């Protein structure tokens, strides 16, 4: 049961297309796990549809349709040329996942958009932050947010840290808790700057989260800087 | 209760014909209808999200995707208006990203359609209430107080975030957020009626 969701304002920005790319990635991962929010998103899209229908129509360029059909014809010709072009030597079938045996089971059952993120970032580089926490930065085609996997071992405790920027965490596998509650698969958590928390993974399984962070996290405990997952972004 | 056959369903039928038979005449009718609306959504007396040239460029991009994606249009899931809207939104995100992309942004090959994903639901239980919500929404929109519909228009048509709207209108962010929430509450009520 998913108990934590993006608020309506954030969902509306997502549906309207103004939510930044990094944050939208987190919302999208949540939507793929949360039927309730997906329904809300469709309602919000209906607002877009209604506004489109009621727009004040504007005359488009007179040759607009002809131009478009020209483009489509050209594409079709190209496709045909490729068909009739030199026949390629049939390649031997490539095993779909050559390294399936070494595949990380925690990455097996992820929302589609996260799966795509994994394959576009292969091989994932895991950085050991502490005995409990490993993280892997993910390139997503933007630089406003730090997007990363956070992976906490069974029962692992993460150093207490606060947040200097907004951070969204989406639980993808397993669950963790902090002073405020327990978070399970699909849960979407927004931390505001200044929030301090100390996540602990539940005992039964490893926990994998997607985190989207606006600004570097600073660890507050003694020697905390040693375990700061985003150490390299610490301002000097 | 008998549901009056509404005009919008015609657009859905045309879309289905384009998807199934690549019917160019059906596509032309869709173009004549939607192209001026797409342009008006981004460039009109009320909205100037794009300049006229960029709006024309967007029309081309959106309509070419409508043609390509028509085979995946499912009239039981969304109305033609909503479906075209989602394609247009994704196109706009793409266009703005292309223009604003900074050199130092990391290279990722996630596409807009990966994040704003419209593939059908795999969980069938959800189909339960995907009824013609849009008509109710349209009626609800017309009855909103102007200050509420105004923020919705800014959000959707001008593509502005809540903080941008707050800065532009000189309103506290909290006020913008609560206007949006009040508007949604009313629309939700008209949906459940």
Description:
Chain A has a 6-stranded antiparallel β-sheet with strand order 1-2-3-11-5-8, covered by helices on one side. A 3-stranded antiparallel β-sheet of chain A has the order 9-4-12, with no helix packed on it. Chain A has helices at 8-16, 21-33, 35-53, 64-84, 112-120, and strands at residues 127-128, 133-137, 146-152, 161-163, 167-173, 176-178, 181-183, 188-191, 196-197, 200-201, 207-213, 217-219. In chain A, helix 1 (8-16) crosses helix 3 and helix 2 (21-33) crosses helix 3. By secondary structure, chain A is α+β, with helices and mostly antiparallel strands. Chain A is globular. The relative contact order of chain A is 0.16. Chain A folds into 2 domains: 8-82, Orthogonal Bundle (Arc Repressor Mutant, subunit A), CATH 1.10.10.1320; 108-230, Jelly Rolls. With 193 residues, chain B is mainly α. Chain B contains 9 helices and no strands. Chain B has helices at residues 8-21, 24-42, 52-69, 80-100, 112-115, 133-142, 146-156, 162-169, 173-192. The model of chain B is unreliable at 1-6 and 124-128 (pLDDT under 50). At the A-B interface, helix 1, helix 2, helix 3, helix 4 and helix 5 of A face helix 2, helix 3, helix 4, helix 6 and helix 7 of B.
Short description:
Chain A has 236 residues and is of the alpha+beta class. Chain A contains five helices and twelve strands. By secondary structure, chain B is an all-alpha fold.
């Amino acid at each position: 049961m998913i108990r934590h969701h993006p608020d309506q304002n954030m969902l509306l920005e997502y549906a309207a297309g103004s939510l930044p790319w990094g944050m939208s990635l987190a919302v999208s991962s949540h939507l793929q796990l949360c039927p309730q929010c997906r329904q809300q998103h469709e309602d919000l899209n209906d607002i877009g549809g209604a506004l489109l229908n009621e727009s004040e129509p504007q005359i488009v360029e007179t040759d607009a349709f002809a131009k478009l059909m020209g483009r489509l014809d050209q594409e079709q010709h190209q496709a045909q040329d490729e068909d009739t072009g030199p026949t390629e030597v049939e390649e031997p079938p490539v095993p779909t996942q050559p390294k399936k045996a070494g595949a990380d089971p925690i990455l097996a059952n992820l929302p589609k958009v996260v799966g795509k993120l994994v394959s576009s970032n292969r091989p994932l580089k895991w950085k050991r932050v502490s005995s409990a926490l490993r993280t892997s930065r993910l390139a997503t085609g933007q630089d406003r947010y730090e997007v990363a996997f956070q992976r906490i071992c069974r029962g692992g405790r993460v150093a207490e840290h606060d947040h200097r920027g907004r951070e969204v965490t989406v639980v993808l596998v397993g669950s963790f808790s902090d002073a405020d509650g327990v978070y399970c698969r699909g849960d979407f958590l927004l931390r505001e700057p200044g929030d301090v928390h100390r996540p602990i993974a539940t005992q039964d399984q490893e926990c994998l989260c997607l985190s989207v962070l606006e600004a570097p996290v600073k660890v507050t405990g003694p020697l905390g800087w040693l375990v700061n997952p985003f150490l390299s972004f610490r301002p000097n | 209760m008998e549901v009056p056959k509404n005009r919008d369903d015609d657009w859905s039928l045309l879309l289905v014909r384009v998807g199934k038979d690549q019917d160019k005449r059906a596509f032309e009718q869709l173009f004549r209808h939607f192209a001026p609306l797409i342009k008006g959504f981004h460039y009109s007396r009320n909205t100037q999200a794009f300049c006229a040239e960029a709006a024309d460029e967007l029309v081309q991009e959106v309509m070419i995707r409508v043609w390509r994606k028509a085979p995946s249009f499912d009239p039981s899931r969304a109305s033609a208006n909503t479906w075209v809207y989602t394609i247009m939104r994704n196109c706009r995100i793409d266009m703005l990203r292309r223009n604003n992309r900074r050199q130092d942004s990391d290279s990722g090959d996630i596409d807009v359609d990966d994040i704003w994903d419209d593939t059908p639901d795999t969980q069938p239980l959800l189909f339960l209430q995907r009824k013609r919500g849009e008509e109710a929404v349209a009626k609800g929109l017309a009855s909103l107080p102007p200050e509420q519909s105004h923020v919705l228009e800014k959000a959707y048509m001008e593509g502005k975030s809540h903080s941008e709207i707050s800065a532009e209108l000189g309103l506290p962010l909290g006020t913008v957020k609560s206007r949006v929430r009040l508007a949604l509450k009313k629309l939700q009520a008209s949906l459940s009626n």
